[in-house]
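Q: I have 554 residues here and want to know how they pack in 3D. Can you give me a structure?
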Amino acid sequence: MAFFAKKGVIPDERSLSYQRTANMAPRVLISDKLSDAAVQIFKDRGIEVDFQPDLGKDKDKLAEVIGQYDGLAIRSATKVTPTILENATNLKVIGRAGIGTDNIDKEAASKKGVIVMNTPFGNMITTAEHAIAMMFACARQIPEASVSTHAGKWEKSKFMGVELTGKTLGVIGAGNIGGIVCDRARGLKMKVVAYDPFLSAEKAEKMQVEKVELDDLLKRADFITLHVPLTDQTKNILSAENLAKTKKGVRIINCARGGLVDEEALAELLKSGHVAGAAFDVFKEEPAKENPLFNLPNVVCTPHLGAATTEAQENVALQVAEQMANYLLTGAVENALNMPSVTAEEAKIMGPWIKLADHLGSFIGQMTDEPIKAINILYDGSVAEMNLDALNCSAIAGIMKRVNPDVNMVSAPLIAKERGIKLSTTNQAKSGAFDGYVKLTVVTSERERSIAGTVFSDGKPRFIQIKGINIDAEIGAHMVYTTNEDVPGIIGTLGMTMGQNNVNIANFTLGRSTAKGEAIGLLYVDEPVPADVVAKLHETGMFRQVKPLQFDVA
């Protein structure tokens, strides 16, 4: 019998990868200031929302109540520590209204299986505009000139500035915000050079900027602006050593993250005159009460105002509310930092395939007792064009559930990495009767074990091959897997033993390699098979293996 998996399968809600308690609305806590419109989005979507904008400042109280919530919406004031996460027994998602997530322990969240989302696009223009404004302020000494004039002085000759036109702007990080800065700078008739390891030559040409190495940028730039996150690779990227390589008279702008620049070294170069000026919106320690850059005459400082416009604050608040609601209600994952994103449209099509990947992994996990060395996943046909990162996470989670029942798509890859398990994937064009299928192979020190499956036009995942033997098996919550020699009497023995022990068989699938060769069976039963029934099947001497299996089909 031939079956064909079709593209565009629309799953019902039960087939999606998220879980939610039946008949209970998700609950979200907002522990920082968020707009009323964002609160209303949650309510309009049927989500219970608890708006406590000052709770984030009370870490003990937050730890006490966090276990009641499925989602946590924050800005920068709330610190999500391992202690908070340890108490977050029901938490599924943390949404940061803004870009920076330094206030969230993402590794602890991942281990807990909690998705961390941010809103990288809501304040891009605002932050880029602030960087341009800071560059103008630094070039023309506007803040000091304003203070002097307010004081009744008229020190026109004291505040001699420089033009931006014709100057070289060095942009460190040409991503979303950096790209907007590049565009605005070109509009000011500046020459733009960019250092970004992820910027392709084609993209640089399209942006009309020159891609350069960092050392070249430092030597050539009249102004340097930073637009990168704070990571192990970018921390102190403008170190004392790199600052010393800069062009004399350079001006440095940082509206990205504190910790990207050696502030002490920069202060000394400002005092010596090597650096003509600086404009900083972010600092290594915030709130910044003291800093080596403070009170220097050629430095402009603002208190982390990059995203501080009414438009941006509203945008990120609305965006985080929509993202969190979409995840809690539909399983769509957008702008996640510790899990592959799955859009709402992808979730509609991929839901059954994500569930299939979980079932394949669960089968392998329940069948494998020895340590796993490698996981190999083959994607064939239509499924090879989908979001494979999400499918990988689901398959790994399925495998790991046997040793850690609390594992999910967020935590599974991290756990597998900690155990030294290697992951490899292969995609290929349609190669057989199915529009698409997934084959999962696990390698241990003793053997390789494989299983393949597909999704039919009804949206239901099916097993189509085990150990290289073709089958057509519906997947149920309670199943029994058997291996045996292909001899008469197997079906009768299974049916009779189950019947005599009041175990009802919902579906029964057989497959074999060759006549009288190795054969396998998959029974879909209504209830878990008792251990004594498994023992009775073993006692017949007809089976090499009888293995009860459980699958999450909700």
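Q: Anything worth noting?
A: The CA atoms of residues 6 and 72 lie 37 Å apart. The mean pLDDT is 91.
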